User: Fold this.
Amino acid sequence: MVAKTEREKMLAGELYLGNDPELYAARARTRRLLQVYNASAIADNAQQQQLQREQLLKPLIGQLGRNVWIEPPFYCDYGTYISLGDNVYMNFNCIILDCNHVRLGNNVFLAPAVQIYAAYHPLNAAERIKGPENAAPVTIGDNVWIGGGAIILPGVTIGDNTTIGAGSVVAKSIPAGVLAVGNPCRVIRSV
Assistant:
């Protein structure tokens, strides 16, 4: 039996070592790409800006739908594990820790400073200080709006046509077609 690489463990949701040379190199590549993206100049018109940003995002994002607009600055761990559908908009200062797959469907809008975390650490302090990390996928359905400063935690799924209120901390999956708000985020009503 061949031992799994740290990357394979990471994507399988197993404990892995984030300081593994392969993972470190991948994150360093992403930092260089993000530096260029976040420093990109403003084009003379929106169409030119869209084309410029798409060219800069193609080598960064794993799957890039049509008409994706990400306001700089934007931050992520790897980028290659992010899948963005069509018509995705991310406002300023969004962060995606994509140590596992993070999927955003079509027509997803993120307000400023939304944070999506696939990464987490062991709860047991003795295990945590040894250095292993863990990750779980995050899935956001179609036609979802996430309000400013919301935090989406590892392993969460947000259903289609849902709105997450500003400042919410989404620790558990949220069904389709609802308004959910708060810390912890909970369903307020159907929409």
